[in-house]
Amino acid sequence: MDQFYLEGIGPVYLRRSNKAKRVIIRIKSANEIVIVVPSRVPLKTGKRFAVQKKEWIRKHLEKFKIKEKSSRIFDEQTVFNTRWHQLEISSDTRENVGIHINQEKVKIIYPSHLKVDQPGIQEAIKYGITETLRMEAKEYIPGRLNELAERYGFQFGKLRVKNQKTLWGSCSSVNNININIHVMRLPQHLLDYILVHELAHTVYKNHSLHFWRAVDQCLGSGKALATELRNYRIEL
Q1: Which of 6, 17, 85, 93 is the most buried (most CB within 10 A)?
Q2: 192/183 Cα distance (integer angstroms)
Q3: Which pTM was predicted?
């Protein structure tokens, strides 16, 4: 990839793509800005585009920086619960991180000679939480989705529970439903809202007035629930 320095922003990378139909900006992190240029377009066009969009880039970089600063640190004082499990973190004289999931707790034991905020320890903690959520979701979601589908008269294809970064759920064109394992951290009424939302998409493939009416008939004010859901984030 080619690189140039954008004043006030920092290094910016230029990458050619055979699939791109137009010049686009991809900000992968606070330190990685990529301008994707169609293969037949001169790289200088991509550079000029970045200069024109400098303020847009600056605003989105600020969002990344805020997100990085607000990243959660899990330690011994953290209070964190999934649907059926409570997180418990402690240290001990050991060489590696131990992860133990029983019926009630996710126990993380890290080496006492290391600091809990080290990236490796935090990754292990998040891995333990993620696996707990995956286990809970596989046990609970299929039955609950079938229950709501039968109650409200919906039919769907296959169900998959997945660890997704941006979506609580989705519904494919052939009515297969994906549900994020992180719904297991939500209150029951919001978990049900996500399930009904995707079930409604088996009939209406957009967010039209008819779609929201279908959700409202099941749960009341769907848009109010959607607004409440914005108070929760997917990432740990």
Answers
A1: 85
A2: 9
A3: 0.69
Two tokens at 234? 């997917």
Tokens of 177: 């439903």
- 3-state per-residue secondary structure call for the chain: CEEEEECCCEEEEEEEECCCCCCEEEEEECCEEEEEEECCCCHHHHHHHHHHCHHHHHHHHHHHHHHHHCCCCCCCCCCCECCCCEEEEEEECCCCCEEEECCCEEEEEEECCCCCCCHHHHHHHHHHHHHHHHHHHHHHHHHHHHHHHHHHCCCCCCEEEECCCCCCEEECCCCCEEEEHHHHHCCHHHHHHHHHHHHHCCCCCCCCHHHHHHHHHHHCCHHHHHHHHCCCCCCC
| Mean pLDDT along residues 204-233 | 91
For the chain, residues classed under CATH 3.30.2010.10 are 146-229
Fold classification of 146-229 (topology level): Zincin-like (3.30.2010)
Q: What number of CA atoms fall less than 13 Å from residue 115's CA on the CB side?
A: 4
pLDDT, average across residues 198-208 = 94
Task: Supply 202's token pair.
Answer: 């088996």
Q: 136-183 pLDDT, tens per residue?
A: 999 999 999 999 999 999 999 999 999 988 899 999 999 999 999 999
Instruction: Look up residue 26 and give its two tokens.
Output: 């991809």
The band of 30, judged by pLDDT with boundaries at 50, 70 and 90, is: low
